[in-house]
Amino acid sequence: MPTRLVQVTIDAADPERQARFWSQVFGWQTQAMADGEVMILPGGWRYPDPGPLPLLFVPASEPRPGRNRVHIDVPTKSPAFFEDEVKRIIGLGATPADIGQGDVPWEVLADPEGNELCILDPRPGVYFDTGPLAAVVLGCADPAAIAGFWTQASGFRRSESRSTPDTAVMRTPVVRGPFLELIRDPGAAAAVGRVRLDVAPPADGDLDEAVTELLTAGARPADGEQAKGPAITLSDPEGFDFRVLTPR
After folding, report:
1. What are phi and psi of 35, to 5 degrees?
2. Does 111 fall in a domain?
């Protein structure tokens, strides 16, 4: 039973404030959900239309400190736009962040609750058609080794032209919306899990069957989680937790 990447979930001490910040970054709309959760998504977009990945902010009494294993990349179109975008997002409440990136052409910022985001330098022909969310980036010990698992879990196709031994790049088969990029990160195992990925089978699918196939592909039940309920938490082959949602 296939699954597809359906949203990015972020723990938040203040989901409304976080959603407001990110909706201004992307120019998207906010949508109140149950249990204090808030989603942001493009105006006029309706699931399961392919393309954008909504962000879902869920209440967390005290989000864990430390660098995330997942972060978001924001594209820019020109050197002048890059400078303006950095200033604009800082003006919205972001702060410069140092995660050991050194001298790089992009800018690393942190959102109001410390989640990293990268404002990318202009890269013609790469992120020109992704919309305001260029890529969701997952730090891995060995991207090539788990690329096959994530192509199955996300429903994306691997881009051989952009992938390297240190990076596995994939995107939805309809070639719309953001990339999913697995990047070699020696410190990935020590990173925290405030930002997670959610996958789901299609509306006519079966949750238990999808979970069984992901377990067969190399996933395992997350520590302390039971493999039952409307959202089942699993760990990928490197121990990164993700959720399998009910069919949609």
Report:
1. 60, 35
2. yes
| Residues contacting 12, CB < 8 A, separation 6+ | 18, 19, 57, 58, 59, 60, 63, 113
pLDDT in tens, 6-24: 999 999 999 999 999 999 9
More reliable by pLDDT, 37 or 248: 37
pTM, whole model, 2 decimals? 0.94
Residue 101 lies in a domain: yes
Report the DSSP pairing between strands 231-235 and 220-221. antiparallel
Owning domain of residue 232: 10-218+228-245
- Structure token digits, residue 137: 């980036």
Rounded mean pLDDT, 138-166 = 95
Q: What is the pLDDT of residue 1?
A: 67
User: From CA 46, how far away is CA 237, in angstroms rounded?
Assistant: 32
Calpha distance 109→86 (Å, rounded):
8
**146 within 8 A of 182, measured Cβ to Cβ:** yes
For 182-187, which contacts have Cβ atoms below 8 Å and span 24 or more sequence positions? 182/138, 182/140, 182/143, 182/146, 182/147, 182/150, 183/137, 183/138, 183/139, 183/140, 183/143, 184/139, 184/140, 184/141, 184/142, 184/143, 185/69, 185/139, 185/140, 185/141, 186/141, 187/67, 187/139
131-148: average pLDDT: 96
* CATH number of the structural domain spanning residue 37: 3.10.180.10
